[in-house]
UniProtKB/TrEMBL annotation, chain A:
GO biological process annotation, one example: transmembrane transport
InterPro entries listed in its UniProt record: MetI-like, MetI-like_sf
Taxonomy of the source species: Bacteria, Bacillati, Actinomycetota, Actinomycetes, Micrococcales
SUPFAM superfamilies assigned to the protein according to its UniProt record, in alphabetical order: MetI-like (SSF161098)
Positions of transmembrane segments: 30-54, 93-115, 124-148, 160-180, 201-223, 260-280
Protein name per Swiss-Prot or TrEMBL: Carbohydrate ABC transporter permease
Main location: membrane
Protein source organism: Cryobacterium zongtaii
TrEMBL record, chain B:
Low complexity composition bias: residue spans: 16-25
Lineage: Bacteria, Bacillati, Actinomycetota, Actinomycetes, Micrococcales
Protein name in UniProt: Sugar ABC transporter permease
Regions annotated as coiled coil: none
Membrane disposition: Multi-pass membrane protein
Transmembrane segments: 42-71, 106-127, 139-159, 188-211, 249-269, 296-317
Amino acid sequence: MTALTTPAVALPPANPPAPIKTSRRWGTPVAYVVAVLVIGLMLAPVLFIIIGGFRTNAQITTDPSGWPSVWNIGNYLDVLTGGTFWRLVGNSLIAGFATTLGVVVLGLMASYVLARYKFRGRGILYATFAAGLMFPMTVAITPLYLVVKNLGLMNSLGGVILPQIAFALPTTIIILVPFLRAIPDEIQEAAFIDGCSRLGFFWRMIVPLAMPGVITVGILAFIASWNSYLLPLFILNNDAVFTLPLGVQSFASQYSVDTAKVLAFTSLSMIPALVFFALFERRIVGGLTGAVKG
Amino acid sequence: MSVRENTPTRLEVDLASGGATGTTPVAPPVRRRRSSSVGARVEIAVLVGPALIVFLGFVIFPVVMAAYYGFFSWQGYGPPTDFVGFRNYVTILQDPTFQEALTHNGVIVVLSLVLQGPVAILLALLLNRKLRGQSLIRVLIFVPYVISEVVVGTGWSLMLQSNGAVNGMLEKLGLGAFTQDWLSNPDIAIWTLMVIITWKYVGFAVILFLAGLQGIPEELPEAAAIDGASFWQIQRHITLPLLAPTLRIWAFLSIIGALQLFDLVYIIWGQYIASTAGTSTMATYLVANGRNAGNYGYGNAVAVVLFLISLVVALIYQRFVLSRDTEGAITEKGTSK
């Protein structure tokens, strides 16, 4: 809601400081107009979902694109007081945090070796992990489903978490290895001279120094897990273990006549991701662009 | 420059420091003193082992098995025994439904580049100036990218229903003649899909380009401005060429993503309607004709075809488009942060 009003608030004071550089004077108002237009287009569907949840089905049927004549919070209350939504959020949180933890721990350990140990086969090892980028989950999905089934992990969050960790490792390692390499050798030398073992160096120096990279990697893994659809679709067939994306879809088909409630459910399910994004926006953007450039 | 010279010497430093540890009086681990290479090997195994096992077990093994199963006619019960050689592949390539899906993927690849590229470049150029609330604008443009495909799919399909909000809005604006069956009319559906894809992913391109633009030294456009170049001349002759590496990387990601598109199509159109509405992709064909139809062998063969097509496109792109950038990346490997 506030998101809609803030750009409008940001607009008025914009005109006075505009003519900073003579060559750009005419362009700046255009930039604002375009920016506002684009933001309107980007947010309109999101607002439709959120506002639609405040309407009744009768309103939506007679006037699909209208404003709520009476703001009706019943749909939202129904969703929030029902158990389904919270169970889905819980499952998604478990899957997200477990995936993030696994990716960070395994990825950091492997990246440390790849970045700071010299041994035969290091290049091949790095290339193996990097090659994982070429295999999207789609290609491996059927055998992956069979592997998970043979491990007895069908219909359990573990069956989603382990493959998600595996498929997040290539990106993680590719981001973290240069990061760990950049830690100056002098620090390592000083630590070794002071009698620190390589493992001690890992715990006392690498882990704290790598924190910014680790946070970026962790956030990327969490969001990927939060939004993941194909893998849970194959692995989870039971409502009790559904994650949020599956839950939204099944809710939408189950209550397909109750559009308003579906809209309320959908908008509530995007709130966690939006809050998460608002908190970590800089890291997420930096991580994505860094991952691409690096 | 000096950093680059440092790279080979780090090897020696590593070795030297390893030796130094052995001689220091401050009680280093015993195994290290006796033979640092054995100790190091144990450490390597302990540190890389878990990641490697998970990675090999859940990424490499399934991929290899996909290639193997692809040669069988197999319903998923018991081990595959009915070896059919390349018959699955022949069937796939001759199946008009697959050819349609492949065509759709091609259309999506091209339209993604053509629609998102120019829009994102213009937005990035405009947003790269000093704007009030620039960081807020950047966040808001990025919102659709963060929302999950399921939410996007559910929301858009409700809006685009024949009695949905988009048609309702058009009628209110007196454009009732333009109302359409956006989702199921096969002449329009792929364009509807493109609008949704553009909406969802253009923010990613903008953010990427903005990061690229901010890496361009301010002196260059300033010098050009002093020499009398107009804003658009500066963009055309200075900014865009310098942005080219970012553009090439983005195009690569966009192409690969378009070839493997699954979620949005499957959520909005489902497995059956997608092909009649003309929006099926190789990935939805894979799921519909593989697991959902109980033909595991066939589904895996589709996966292999999808992978090989992506791989060939990626290699061609790397060879002919990205090669300039990768040469730079490789020669500067040691110096990059």
